[in-house]
Amino acid sequence: MVADIFYTLLSFPLFIGMGRRELENIVTKTKFSFHTLHEGDTIVDTDTRSGMMVMLTDGTAVATTFSDDKGYRVEEEINGPMLVQPEYVFGLAQHFSQLWKAKTVCHLITLDKQEILKLSDNSLIFRLNLLNLLSTQVQKRQALFWHAPLHTDEEFLRRFFLVHSIRPAGRKVVHIKISRLEKELNIDRRRLSAVLRQWEQQGLVEWTRGCLIIPALEKIINNSLTPSKPIVLHPTQ
């Protein structure tokens, strides 16, 4: 049992670099909670109190992020191992900001804040890993505001999907009306529709009323590296 937990914990960045003896000592002295969830079960919700570390060890979950006014939302499939909003262990926010549900059978390990603080006191490696994890998230978020200016409608739309995703890859379902997307990007509806139609023809998106399905976001990102056909606006668009 200890050996199973040992290899499971090593799949998370918080425990990388630990020797077997230190990790076994942590396993025997730390109060880990283990959970099994089935399809449709809620992992965390926006009314779930934070202040704990939630580790999705295996299985597939669907994470949903909402705009402040609930005017649109983004669903994405996340495979374990994955930490669920680790930035919410500390800070002023009292609840998670996303909804996570199990799509398949999922196994979780949770640690409450007191156990995390104890681990940080007793393990230098864990403390450094935790600081590196949180610092990296802050640095990536700050870097978004200093990217080179965007020039094309495709670039604006691609950036919108990127900054509203947990991971820059995988399947995404964006529930948003075209009128709201037009306001978010400040792009004329005809031009926006032209980009989406071109991407649809390339198999990059599936566009239905109030919903954009992205089978693989990485393909949209990689598409920016190859020349695309010029977008032609027709009078009827």
UniProtKB/TrEMBL annotation:
InterPro entries named among the record's database cross-references: cNMP-bd_dom_sf, RmlC-like_jellyroll, WH_DNA-bd_sf
| UniProt-listed SUPFAM superfamilies | cAMP-binding domain-like, Winged helix' DNA-binding domain
UniProt signal peptide: none
Q: What is the superkingdom listed in this entry's lineage? A: Bacteria
What name appears for this protein in its UniProt entry?
Crp/Fnr family transcriptional regulator
